[in-house]
Amino acid sequence: MPSSYTPKGNKKNSFIKWSLLIVSIVAISAAALWFFLQPTNSPANINDAAQNEVQTSQKPIEEQPKEEKAEEDKVEEPKETDSVKEPETVKQPEETKEEVKKEEPKKEEPKEAQPKEEAASEPKKQETTKNAAGYSDTTKLPKTPTVINGILLVNKQHPLPETYAPGEGKEARAAFEKMREKALDDGIDLVAFSTYREFARQKELYNGYVAKDGQKAADRYSARPGYSEHQTGLAFDIGEAGQEQHWASASFGDTKGGKWLAKNAHNYGFILRYPTGSESITGYMHESWHFRYVGQKAATEIYNKGVTLEQYLGV
Ligand SMILES: [Zn+2]
Questions:
Q1: Which residues cross the membrane (predicted)?
Q2: Separation between Cα atoms, residue 263 and residue 289, nearest integer Å
Q3: What pairs with residue 147 in β-bridges?
Q4: Is residue 203 included in any domain, yes or no?
Q5: Which of 107, 134, 184, 278 has most Cβ atoms within 10 angstroms of its Cβ?
Q6: How far is the CA of 66 from the centre of ligand 1 (A)?
Q7: 184 in the same domain as 300
Q8: Which residues, including other chains, have CB under 8 Å from residue 18's CB and lie 6 or more apart?
């Protein structure tokens, strides 16, 4: 029955045609959709590309230790999120690599340098602590004074024998008088209001300060008996006549006389024994009035170097 078959055949053919057409449309649509959905310039894609570049560029250096990689990651993270410009996508990883390479030694240098510095400074700290003016409770007064390079040293680690009683140093007194004459020319009338102090007197003074301010405070401004530089006869507390309000006071350093002494005393063999900021070395807070006779040569060297007597003598 061709007549009856024909429509059926036509129906079949048209069904196949439509099916093919629909399939084709679906396939084309899918392809178009896939093509359309392919992201081209989105930041995310560039990041992916950059990451791929980084990964590929990292391949040759994958043998590097894991720590270095971790550092690279740290460096790259902000770069990727910050810059998303298309032309830089290829360069970025290279630049990052270079930066990382450059930074690697920089990062390591301080790490290595720090321990060295610490190691170098540790002994200094220990020395400072050792010299830091603390009294050693086990230290008994010695039988002989400490003399280094011909210079008598007295501090909280180097006391004097109780019997050490030389009186005021004659050479020191002569030097002071010479200095006083010179200062008078500049209109400054210097007075040495306290010089030699014997052991018993220092004991009396110190005990009085302890009773008044307590031992901790007294130890900052007064020496225990046997530990006073005044017992050497070479320490001169200097002020200005008519300026008694500044005697043994920090304010003396701000007066004309105090400034003159700080600038000129070394020419006469005297040093400012307890300079500002040296309490950890000398054991005493700044005393603008306390000068110590060490002789012109040593005094000038100490003045020019800007060091304390302890540092000059290397203790
Ligand atoms: Zn003094």
A1: 18-37
A2: 13
A3: 152
A4: yes
A5: 278
A6: 64
A7: yes
A8: none
130 is a domain residue: no
- Residues 185-207 have pLDDT tens digits of 999 999 999 999 999 999 999 99
Centre of ligand 1 from the C-alpha of residue 264, in Å: 18
Judgement on whether residues 63 and 187 belong to the same structural domain of the protein: no
Residue 118 is among the residues annotated as catalytic for this protein: no
Kindly state whether residues 159 and 228 are assigned to the same domain: yes
> Same structural domain for residues 208 and 269?
yes
User: Which has the minimum average pLDDT: 121-130, 133-142, 194-203, 209-218?
Assistant: 121-130
Checking if the pLDDT of 106 tops 90, the result is no
Catalytic one of 53, 240, 287, 310: 287
265 within 8 A of 288, measured Cβ to Cβ: no
pLDDT average, residue stretch 170-180: 98
Provide the domain count of the chain: 2
Q: Which residues surround ligand 1, an ion (CB under 5 A)?
A: 237, 290
Residue 118, in any domain of the structure = no
Q: Tell me, what CATH number does 163's domain have? A: 3.30.1380.10
Six-digit token pair at 236?
């001169």
Q: Cα(254) to centroid of ligand 1, in Å?
A: 18
Mean pLDDT (the chain, rounded): 74
Among 296, 220, 309, 216, which Cα is nearest to 264's? Answer: 296
